[in-house]
# Entry
Amino acid sequence: MPSMHTGTADPGLSEGPLGGALSRFASMPVVWRILSLAIFFTVWEIAGRSNFNWAFPSFSKTLMAFFEMLGDGSLGAAYLRTIEPLGIGLVIALGVGISAGVMMGLRRDVEWLGLPIFITMQAAPMAALIPLVTYVYGIGLTSKVLAVVMLAMPVITINSYKAVRNVPASAVDMCKSFMGTRRQQVFKIILPAASPMMFAGIRLGVAEGFSGVVLAELLITPTGIGDLITFNRSIAQYPHMYAVITSIVVFAVVAVTLLHRLEMTLFRPEKRGT
Amino acid sequence: MTLYGYRIPSMAALLVWAVIWEIIGRFELVMLFPPFTKVLAALGDVISTPSFAAAARITMFSYLAGLAIAVVFGIALGMLMGLVKPADRLLNMWVNIFLSAPLSALVPVIMILLGMGTPTVIATVFMFAVWIIALDTRAGVQHVSPSLMEMSQSFGASRFKRLNMILLAALPEILAGVRLGVIRGVKGVVIGQLLVSIIGVGALFNLYSQNFLMAHFWALILILFAFALSLAALVGRLETRVEYYAGSRG
Amino acid sequence: MTMAKPLVAETAVRAEDSDAVITVRGLHKVYGNSTVALDNIDLSFMRGHLTSLLGPSGCGKTTLLKIIAGLLKPTSGEVLVNGKPVRGPGPERAFVFQDFALMPWATVLRNAAFGLEVRGAPKAEREDRARHYINEVGLAGFEDKYPHELSGGMRQRVGLARALAVDADVLLMDEPFSAVDEQTRRKFQEDLIRLREVENKTFILVTHSIEEAVYLSDRIVLLSPRPGRVADIMEPDIDRNVDPDLIRREPAYLDLIDDIWRGLRHYVE
# Structure
């Protein structure tokens, strides 16, 4: 049966061409990550040097621009300004989002009234509201905070709601059967059982919040990171512009990854459910 | 929810919100909201203008083009990652990075590379939609039951046939990814045009805010929201159809 | 079913006069508008007895148990516990769940003490009681483990300890061994027989296993599906004071299993 032999030779179904010791080395995630980064930066460097586009700097130039801005303090100052609306917005989004989500999960009437709004908010392009908010509240901090809240809150709320609704019915029945009050059901069973999924929603909300603050700083009025991007673009200092953009992407990804780590240590997978 | 024994459809709550909106607007409680009836009246105004027709055309075109590329590329990338281990190890990190990165920060880069026009918007839609499609396709391919693959091997199915089987078996996950991609794509098409700001709805938003046309502004937002929701509902319906056989997959 | 027929009449008479802990009267349960889960159930459960509710899936046995527990409301009819109608869960009943319903974030000790925690018992007292019953179900030394560190059988022992710790008169067990592998289940059943000698409690056990019902029960209530009705009641005449392995070889045990299977066979299609 020749077809069976071609089957085992398929790289997807067998382990690939690497042999014994080498494959064990290659199965280490760190090695692959470094390799992956190296390939990405090399491709970037080559693409930048090939001059295919006058506005595409090489990786080395971008890196140099990054250290230059880090050295003269302009990057640090920009981050400090950006953190302000991001932080305030996230605190509001977390407070309102989690309480709204939990209430919708616990009460049918709140669910009926609130859920369609949040489903709409999650599916709809909330960014379209940013110009409107700017138009009404001006170009100050309020608009930027609102931009962060609008983008971050829906996913936090929907996840909190789903987390509460996904608590196993038998766990709540168990508390009821021992004559637990509604309060005990909520605080001793429902909220602890819902917290892993709620936390995952918070992580997604933080990622959206980063998107919101960058968008706000690009659209409303250039401050912080948005200002550095816009300014460097206007004077055609492309390595600097790329460095800023890369740094905010890295910053957001690192923040989200750290939250993910925290999630994994707080709610170890085996403790998530029986 | 049921009230006095009658079942109230869940989206009826939106009517309640419309009434609250109207009240807030009438009494000017929150500056952000003009009366809902005024917004509805402006709806006709907005739709009948030729600039709206142009904006709708640009939006539809760049959305569909960007999404089509994202679907084709995303599924191909996901299949590659699901089937070829080294490719997965090299690319998985990047797909995950782009999934949680603030993609709007990348739009200025696209803008200087592709110019202030439709290509930039198409690229933005693509960027927003492609990663989740790739990741869900990968998950779907990896979850194809090994016994199904062993079965097809033992019956001597050709390589092409088996690839086809994998695609079909992973279809529920792929469609779930496409649905999320459709929703993210709408966000992309709006954000792209807002940042480019001289074409499509971005230009309309500018026009309305310069002329203090609050109701028109809201009308346009309502149209965009309705567009996003009906697209999501459409793919959702398609998805339940596929889940019908996915359920029997066990 | 020749052997079981007279028993129906006999128990019906006995239900009138002897002391029943739980009496079920004219119970109906309708889901939605038309699905009849339980249709006119009249039963009484004797103090100190172990009664099994046995039947194929869809016969409403779990529904009946949850109504007795006060977790579900009947459409009509009533349940009396010690002569008082049931309005909800009460201290004289404790429930053992099919999926164990343990809190994954809490230790064995806290899980076992949970019923007392909810009732506001002081920490030291409830942990003492919990420790006692953890010991009794054979889990001594596992107090500080988490549920994910235990096997399925051990998890259900925690569920049992939790139910015992609140010192209820009646233990309501909803297919307690169905999520447990066969060997563990046998050991668990033997332990349950021994436990009954120590703890003077009334057990109501929902099961779909004929062997399990015959092995454990003083009385078996056979339910038929769609709509759920009492099809038959039988009282296995088996001496359980002997070696547990001998029970499984007794002719009375084997004959009754055969009888019940013949009665249930036509529902399983």
Remarks:
- Chains C and B do not touch (no CB pair under 8 Å).
- Chain C has two domains: 5-92+171-267, 107-167.
- Residues 1-17 of chain C have pLDDT under 50 and may be disordered.
- The first helix of chain C runs from residue 5 to 17.
